[in-house]
Amino acid sequence: MVARIKKLRTGLLALCCLASLGLGGELALAESAAPSYNYSYWGNAVAAPSAYEATTLITGASSGAGPFNNPQDIQVTEDQQIYVLDSGNNRFVILDQDYKSVKTVDAFEFKGKAEKFNNPQGIYVTQQKEVYVADTGNKRIVHLDSSFKAVGIIEAPKSELLQASFEFQPVRVAVDKADRIYVMSAGVFDGFMEFGADGVFKSFIGANRVHVDAVEYFWKSISTKAQREQMVMYTPTEFTNLDINDEGFLYATNGDDYGDPIKKLNAQGADILRREGYYKPSGDLMYSTRSGGAPRLVDIDVSDSEIYAVLDASRGRVFTYNGDGYLLYIFGGIGNRLGEFNTPVALEHSGDDILVLDQALGEITVFQTTEYGRTLNSAVRSYYNGDEEMASREFSKVVNLNANMEYAYAGIGKAYLRQGEYKESAEYFERSMDRTNYSKAFLLYRKEVLRGHFSTIMTGLIALLALWLGLRMFRKMKARKKVELH
Amino acid sequence: MNREALQHPLYVMVHPFNGYWDLKYERSQKTSLILSFGILFMLILTNVLGEQYSGFLVNMNNPRYLNSLLEAVYVLVPVLFWCVANWSLTTLMDGEGKFVEIFITTCFALLPIVLINFPWIWISNFISAQESSFYYFFKNFAILWSGLLLYVGIMTVHQFSPSKTVGTILLTLLAMAFMAFLTLLFFSLVQQMIAFVSTIYQEIVLRR
Asked: Which of B54, B57, B132, B134 to mutate to test the interface with A (most CBs of A within 10 A)?
């Protein structure tokens, strides 16, 4: 009787478990309206909670500045003013924190003459709120001070580095703290153009490398000069965008299919981006030609703690990485709903929010963090600042929200390692597939175990040795007795 | 099967010239054949165990895609291909070996891989990243040892000269590649035939 009741009870329990499992699944489905995912160690796309969700849509009309026409670039200052470069209307609009227009600049005065922009493509605002505009149609860079008066204009530079037929078509611009100006110019394959604070052209930095196919190389090497002139020229890939971080490092994206589409350039132009993650930072790993083919990264944005986000125009997705190159989260997409785009061209962070500019629709989508995104950001930040205790706590929360976040386990493992809990540490590193750190933790754990059991192990060994010796002696004695008998 | 027969594979491992001679002329073929299948089975077993239970630092497999049956195929197909290719070649090249002899020789040569890899499945769970070079060293050492045994074995079983054995082995590898190509071609053709028949069937069924 008791057994029967027990059986019934377990059966009921199992039924309840099953039912709740089903419920949980449905809840999760209903919750994630936009599918969010991340890439696992094995390169599979696994479901993840969304880290960012679209909350607001800013249009030219809603801001009070009149509709945007083909806007190309946005820039956000530290006090969260948004500068929108409205290329089609040859102006830029400044929005305040409530996304209302506070000023529109479509003309400026230079040397007593009123001037206008002509199809400007890039804008950069320094910390002193000086504005640099890549005035593409007029082939110049315009430097305005904080009251929007022209301070200087950079025209086409003259240098022996440049060919006679060189055309200066600046499309993106960034300025570091020492007022050095970095310009991305259309049709230039030698990297970014670097100008001094005085507007004098200095040099090119950070050219992408040419990828040479072995077969192509063979054909070129055996063809005549006339034939070679008919062949396709191999030029390095152009950059597609740039951003500059607080320390003055340039972050750049390019359309390179073979090399690294994301680069962090130091003052020498060398690529120093850390790629310690499961995969090289490059946007989507798996894609089909039907959904837009290979990722086409069009903008990059660096925020604090070396976290950077890139925008993939082919699928409208934003990929965020930390300084070590681990993929943190993915959001966005191409479509008609809120949080999806038509032709995204620029992204920018404003505090913890992320803004994405859509060129064709003339809209800015504001994304705000969910609890998951906030926790993950704060974990990454605490780890970056060296607060491993705090990072571990936050990473534990992240794991509770998303058990598939392999990178978070390494964060917990590091804290355990620091605390001397080597076994737990090794276990967490194994879950995060971090072999280097696993080896470190495991060595310490092994040493600890061997030390703790040294006496037992040695006693055992000596006992075994003694047993073996005794057995041998016993056998010999037996053999001798046999000989004596015969 | 007596104790001496069981020990013979180990004797072959360290005394390949004498061991293979005995195998060809002295030993009972039935016992050797049983032992060969035993070695092959153990090789499959160690392969499966190794993929699953090797230490985290040296195990690069995605556990989700492990398939023990496929692991068995990865062992059986190369051995079978090798034996068939070698047999077909050496009958043309005046080799004295019969197919059974070639098979037994090949299986006996694989014993070092089993004996060296088996403990390392367990030991690899207790090593660090720096010590993993020992793991790879012993793995490669086992393969080299097996290669050497195979070389001596083929030489003995066919009564070839050393240089002719090298040539035979190279030709055998070539023949294996050719066989693989033919097999793939065959399967692809069969697949297309099946697809063709099924399409016709669908057409007829849907037209009605």
From this structure: B57
